[in-house]
Structures are given as structure tokens and as C-alpha cells.
Amino acid sequence: MANYRNRRLLDLAHRVQTCQFKLYGCQGHAPEGCEPAHSNQSAHGKGMGIKAHDDQHVASCHHCHQVYDGHTHIVIPRAEAVELFNEARQRTFALYERHGWLEAVNYQDKAA
Predict the structure, then answer these.
(1) DSSP string, 31-69
(2) Under DSSP, is residue 18 helix (H, G, I), strand (E, B) or coil?
(3) pLDDT at residue 45 in the model
(4) Mean per-residue pLDDT for 94-99?
(5) Is the dihedral of CA 55, 69, 22, 79 positive or negative?
(6) 93: CB partners within 8 A, 6+ apart
(7) Distance between CA atoms of 99 and 24, rounded to whole angstroms?
(8) How confident is the model over 18-45, as a mean pLDDT?
(9) Residue 103: enclosing H or E segment and its boundaries?
(10) Predicted local distance difference test score (pLDDT) of residue 112
(11) Are the C-beta atoms of residues 105 and 8 closer than 8 Å to each other?
């Protein structure tokens, strides 16, 4: 089964100017807009060379995206990274919901 893809859903992250990840060293604000940081969890469709489902992302500043993906000297233990991602995803999608953006991109939660 192919992973869920929705470019319009990912583009919502760019509307957000406050990082929802808030990892170590985060400045909290992304005036140019956040980036959609995909999950690194296999439970979310992540595989070798395959991004997770597009609805498994966090509106993240560039710094936090780099930290989460392991592209900095900051190391986050796997269990902590999973917990931090899951909490940040909840904040991200709650923000999208509050703004009514999910309806605007016709997003339907797969769990519903």
C-alpha cells in the first residue's frame, strides 16, 4: 500500500510561524514559515528511503527539523524523539484544526 501523500496538507506548515517541535536550541519562531518535518517512525510509514505518510508531520523550524533528523551534534534518544514527535504532531494538527485549515485542504483523518 502506498503512503498517503497530500501536498496541500504539507503546505499548511509553511503558514505556521511558531515552531511546534520546540527541541533543544529552538528559537521558537520561524518568520519565513515552518517546514513539515515527517515522522521517522516505521509505524507512520517511514522506511528506508521512504518518507512517512504526509499526515505524520510537525510544523517545525529549520533548526528543530535538522535536530530531529539527526543532522546536528545534538542527539536525542530514540524513545524521547518518539514522544517529542507525537506531542508536537498533536500540537500541529490542533493548530491546523483551530484555524480551519484541515477542512480547506479536504483532509480526512485516516483513523476516523
Answers:
(1) TT--EEEE---GGGT-BTTBPPPTTSEEEE-HHHHHHHT
(2) strand
(3) 87
(4) 96
(5) positive
(6) 102
(7) 27
(8) 95
(9) helix 101-104
(10) 39
(11) yes
